[in-house]
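User: Teach me something about this protein's shape.
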Amino acid sequence: MSKKEKTMVPFVATHPGVLLMDELKERRMTQSELAKTIDVPAPIINDIIKGKRSINAETAVLLEAALDISAEYWMRLQSQYDIDVANQKERTIQIKKEMEIWDVISKYIPVKILAKRKILTGNRTENIARLKQIFCFEEIEELIENYSRQSSLLTEGLYRKSTKLQIDEVNLFGWKYLAFWVSQQEDIPNSFNEDCESEIIKELNNVFLENSNTLRKIKNTLNRYGVKFIILEKFDKVPVDGFSFWRGDNPTVVLTLRYKDVDKLAFNLMHELAHVFHHLDKDSCDGLINIESDRTDNLEEEANEIACNYLIDNVRWDSFMRTASSMSPHTIQEKIKIFASDNNINPAIVLGRYKKATNIYSIKSSINFNIN
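Assistant: First, the predicted structure itself:
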């Protein structure tokens, strides 16, 4: 029997007493005659026929003896009736429906991770309602459609997928929609000013230079210019650094702090702001996720270039690198500190860019990389 057949529920549950009554009519036997034959009070037979009493094992055995219809048959009828009645109870129907919904949800949403993050509770009814809010669906088909749309984005390159790293697509989908949902909880009074690019970068540079209460000051700065800012821990097998998107009237920048260094924080933030000012479509429902990759598409390459130039333009950087290329590790650190001081830039950002440009990451330094 197929799963569909197993789960079919009749509109009206049929009590075995109905079939017993039909059998007596065919045999032209009265209820009293049957009661006398099997030596039970007549009201018991009448209650069974009216559906007020169940057929128990003893009665089933007596009916077999009187009517030559097996006791197993009568017990199967009674058991099926009890199951049908249970299925038709409102609470049972609701529980079964929720179980079916939860079974599908668990295939497309990382429910264990969300439960571990205390976003879900032990109440399945509440959890389904919460997930409908977070993942923007009413019917389960909408959830499946939203998940399917993500797969097409992977082939279009809006997600940079590494061939060296395992990426869990369900976890990625869950993280993205959690970011959307957290953004919706943020309420900032200021509208986005698309002409404020240089002002934002200048203020953020001062925040990184000071490096004190840095994350709070980043948030305050971006919020004043109408940009939402969220720190959201990454999910397992989702090596994401940042995410930028439009939802409502404000762009949102999400960072994971996968690497807790101020230079990486600065670069990832600048990368997402480059998307905000140069690539994001306000009418888009998705956005751009920055995932570790062994390749980059055109948008990511452009965002990387813009991010580098936000704090140190290419003219100044090229001039610095021409004089720094032949210096020893000790000398280059002193040169970096002087360059950073002359240009009012956190020296960790300069050293971080130098390491990336030269592919030399083993330099030991007294420069503080901590996010304070």
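Now, about its shape. Residues 264 and 330 are 22 Å apart (CA to CA). Residues 312-372 form one domain. If you'd like, I can walk through any region in more detail.
User: That's plenty for now, thanks!
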